Amino acid sequence: NQWNDWTAAGLPLDHAFNTNVHTELKNSWWFHAGITWGGVGDVFCDRCARGGPALRTDQIISAWSGFSGDERKLILPELWFNYWQADEGRSHAVSLQPYVRFRLSSRMTMSSGLSLSRNRDDRQWFDNFTDPDGVTVHHTFAHLEQETASLTGRLDITATPTITLQVYASPFITKGEYSNLRELNQPRAANYDDRFMPYTAITDPGGFNFKEFRSNVVARWEYRPGSALYLVWQQGRSDFEGERGDRSFRSDLNRLFDTHPNNTFLIKMSYWFDR
Fold first, then answer.
1. How far apart are CA 21 and CA 43, in angstroms?
2. Given 3-state DSSP classes, what are the helix, strand and coil percentages for the chain, each rounded to the nearest 5?
3. What is the distance between the alpha carbons of residues 186 and 9, in angstroms, rounded to a whole number?
4. What is the share, in percent, of the chain residues with pLDDT greater than 70?
5. HSE (side-chain half, CA atoms, 13 Å) at 112
């Protein structure tokens, strides 16, 4: 694959090349892989400064691979790997996503997936600051070290042809720390370091620790053809801290479930008027 992007004014945003391979093995397992070479030539990001001037970007290498098991089996495992590098090696990210689905019976399936990622972004947008007249004059960026973990579980039950139950739950944790705060200087400069200059109004940019839990349970009864009754329970929890902290992911998870939950109960009924 090859693609090119421009703004309506003709500013080049991306020139990229990509190739992928998908192979089915003799045991009916699948192997997938791909690689993208982006940012080729003189390209710019017109959104990175959140309304500020366009910022020159450098070449990006993005690679991914994964495998999935035989879908006919009772247990279907999958594993996915992603890698990304940019900013002349200053920024990179890696993620791993194992997944498994259990077909417990013809009426019941269960799945669980884990996502772990580590991100180092040397030009993470931080904030835009104004002068006393309210004019934005400082478009700041920072070096970000970030870690993210999430877990997703699903359960689907078909009790009868007209009664089903679906359960979904997903905790999410991401935390990071900012450093090396800078502002735009010559955003279109060919030299990476010339695009920024130090921003000294803030000496400690801090960090963040955000945790969230989302779940829902949906019971559906089709009491007559085309007409259904839904009973829904949703629960949400969230917690934000203005610094990364030194707790483990397990301790962050415990803190998340100590927060007060928001519970929502819904009843929905539909009726099909046959003509």
1. 27
2. 5, 65, 25
3. 20
4. 100
5. 4
- Please choose, from the candidates 131, 242, 139, 133, the residue with its C-alpha nearest in 3D space to the C-alpha of residue 199: 139
What tokens were used for 69?
A: 């098991």
- How many C-beta neighbours within 10 Å does residue 116 have? 15
Distance CA 212, CA 19 (A): 36
Which residue in 50, 45, 11 sits closest to 139, CA to CA?
Answer: 50
CB 170 within 8 Å of CB 150:
yes
For 64-101, b/e burial (b = at least 16 CB within 10 A) is bebbbbeeeeeebebebebebbbbeeebbbebebebeb
CA nearest to 140, candidates 152, 132, 153, 130: 130
Q: Which residue has the higher pLDDT, 274 or 202?
A: 202
d(CA 181, CA 175): 18
Rounded to whole angstroms, the Cα distance separating 94 from 80 reads 11
Distance CA 234, CA 213 (A): 11
What is d(CA 29, CA 242) in angstroms, rounded to the nearest whole number?
A: 45
Q: Which two tokens stand for residue 16?
A: 């990229």
Q: Write down the pTM of the prediction.
A: 0.89
Residue 187 has phi, psi (to 5 degrees) of -60, -20
Specify whether the CB–CB gap between 239 and 211 falls below 8 A.
yes
Hey, what are 271's tokens?
């009726």
Instruction: Report pLDDT for 274.
Output: 79
CA distance 196 to 60: 19
User: In the predicted model, what is the mean pLDDT of the chain?
Assistant: 96
pLDDT value at residue 112: 97
